[in-house]
Predict the structure.
Amino acid sequence: MDVLQPQITSNEALTILANHGYRATNPRRDVVELVMQQTRPFTAEQIVAQLPTTSRASTGPRGQRSAIGGRPDPPLPQSNGHPAYVVGEPGHRHHLICSNCGYVVAFTSCPVEPVVAELGQSHDFAIQGHNLEIFGLCQNCRS
Ligand SMILES: [Zn+2]
Ligand SMILES: [Zn+2]
């Protein structure tokens, strides 16, 4: 099973932002650094809470923040109701999610593809996508 790790550096992320018209201001650097350190799904609110106060006022509207994190489609469910983001490249992937602490493992191998193909055939459906998140307890939360 392929486990995905973030494959870009903070500097590359800043370059991507710059290409989308977001200049690399100091507050944005802080946000990017924080985002790249996340190993669990996180919300915009959690990132803001970790920012130095000097940077908080300048992080801009929600839309700018979401340009930084890869937004799963649909966003990963979180117990507090906020959409969560994971660091990584866009693409077809599924997640194992610890429902206690939010630890997430992303994997690219697709266990449901054969079922989806079969369903498409038997119901004459042109399948465009699917979604699979698996919930459970991670090793830490069980011990
Ligand atoms: Zn856990
Ligand atoms: Zn799949």
